[in-house]
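Narrative summary of target 7.
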Amino acid sequence: MSGDEIAAIVVSYRSAATIDACLRHLRAARDVAQIRVIDNGSDDGSMECVQRHAAADPRIRFVANPDNPGFAVACNQGASASDAPWLAFVNPDLMVVADDLVRLRDDARLLGEALVGADLIDEAGDHDPAARRRDPDFAAMMRNPAMRDLSVPSNDEQLQRVAAVSGALMLVPRTLFERIGGFDSGYRLHAEDLDLCRRVRAAGAIVAIDNSVVVTHLRGVSSRSRPVFVEWNKHRGLWRYFRKFDARSHGLATRAMVFAMIWARFPFAASRAIVRAN
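Modeled conformation, tokenized:
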């Protein structure tokens, strides 16, 4: 195996609406030597679609988890089940075109050692604010609610260095991914991408977005089936992130206020998610 091959890791959960198109796009993408689909207990026909693709393309292998151990665990499973020198984590509702992953790989090489993401748009062409983010500062959020918006505007650079990119599409060299221990499996859903990017930077590598690579992301397809579960784990992930990286630099009172701030928001977020899902 040369140094160009890419392993695409797709974590699926109730993704029947999009997984077929996602895999067709990946199969047509340049230098994708391996496709690993890790399914977290889908019951909507997702796996039947994956099996049809696997029968037609030997690059595709899959793991059907009997339960849902979470996104981070499944990403690590997919990385372990492959050996290509580049890892691309691709959501099942994301549609790459032929050269997208190759361009991100070339960006990572140009930067030396880097995790690279892309600009993401939905079906209407609206940009995803999660594509470029700063680290969350929970103490600052209590003083200024506007700080809860983590999005960073794009600039005129093709390769823009940022604190974090979206976990919907990340490309990283395997050596770097393994050196930092992969995804933190203590997260179930959400914030694991913020965590991974922070540890990449702590290891001396770069996190960047290629503003010229624009990829369609049909957001929230899987999460609509269990909106309260998703919001619960999103808030749980934020609390884990704070405890892991920032809690030690604050006193007990601030930690308690951050806890209250995060969890006081949960009922309202869950209610909005239910309305959106219906």
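The chain has a mean pLDDT of 93.
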